[in-house]
Amino acid sequence: xxxxxxxxxxxxxxxxxxxxxxxxxxxxxxxxxxxxxxxxxxxxxxxxxxxxxxxxxxxxxxxxxxxxxxxxxxxxxxxxxxxxxxxxxx
Length: 90
What we know:
Layout (H helix, E strand, L loop, with lengths): L6 E3 L14 E3 L9 H15 L2 E4 L6 H15 L4 E4 L5
Parallel strand pairs: 1-2, 3-4
């Protein structure tokens, strides 16, 4: 599918890992002021608010990942995005 690209969400900059396997990277605006321990959660929350489609693997809907998936599912009920939880396919 040539119209699909793999984008790495950067929760902080500089990102300490190799990004060469990705088509591009995305660093949300405003993240410069977020303390590093909260950066991943804040970046994920930004994506839940702005993306059209979420592909995730969340088996228990607990913890921070569970909270984010629940938010995404609420947006899906409103018709604002589509959520595909790969854990449900197994």
